[in-house]
Amino acid sequence: MGIAMRTVAVALPAIALLAGCAQTGGINVKEVGSYHIGGEPVTLKGLPTKKMVYSPGSPPVTLNPNGDFVAGQMYTRYTILENPRASVPMLMWHGGGLSGTTYETKPDGKPGWEMDFLRDGWSVYVSDAVERGRASWARYPEIFQGEPVFRTKKEAWELFRIGKTYASDPKSRQAIPGTLFPIADFDQFTKQSIPRWATNDERTQRAYDQYVQQACPCVIVVHSQGGNFALTSALKYPDKVKAVVLVEPSGSPDPDKTDLAPLRNVPMLWVWGDYIQDYPFWKSIKERQERFRAALNQAGGQGDLLDLPAKGIHGNSHMIMMDTNSRQISGLIQDWLKTQGLVR
């Protein structure tokens, strides 16, 4: 990508750099920027035109939906440090129905993992996958097949292991006793929800693969739905991916049908929160991930486990990076990355 590096002496958007400088003694940033990657040309024909007004008071126009488009691109924003302590940058990949905001400022207004790892010496890329956030949608069903799926608050409350009883009235919601998710900020968190498609995995994988080829060598930190994409990219480009941190990944290639030998030199860390045994859905996911991890180790790779409850750390939800102890967990991940020789 030919980024022109220069020293930037201004506040970083969206990551509260000035607050970080006050607390850490300064973060020297060389470059802040963004780009889109991936995408394919698409031409639509034969769709009807219609009259419409774009803004009150403006004249009507004829909208013609036919023509050339690009679809399937993804977006990333990067912050390159002047003197990073890590040997490669860190790419942060989000989960289903979410975007890169997962790693930015937390719903309670405190710094997220993006800021944590910048402080810890990493240049950081935070992306929005195909169809999410600033990656943009495409027409459906003409380009994206089917229609988008929207997540309700109830689904987020229950699926993310925040509480078992949801109510529209926040005072009537029952959170899991001991949860570390900031309950008072749950409604703020749900503003991050972004509609998703269940039919775009191939497009998304293609974009992620191109992203890895362009932005790496790198370390990938990935959450939930993104796990399968990260593992697939690592299988294709093991020379580009120096480590993968999988935060409660919900999917992975089938270890019985996949040659895991290419991953022998790609150390991996699985991170799991609390209450999983109480949710059959999550219990099943973790068991499948443990099969993959065991197969990786059997193939000569390195699949490590950070099971937080087993370490005496209780109360973490599926959104570990937003919980009140998120800095503690990013610190444990940083410690593991140090043992891999990737950061000093």
TrEMBL record:
Domain AB hydrolase-1: 219-267
Pfam families according to UniProt: Abhydrolase_1
Keywords: Signal
Signal sequence, start to end: 1-24
SUPFAM superfamilies: alpha/beta-Hydrolases
Protein name according to UniProt: AB hydrolase-1 domain-containing protein
Organism: Advenella kashmirensis (strain DSM 17095 / LMG 22695 / WT001) (Tetrathiobacter kashmirensis)
Organism classification: Bacteria, Pseudomonadati, Pseudomonadota, Betaproteobacteria, Burkholderiales
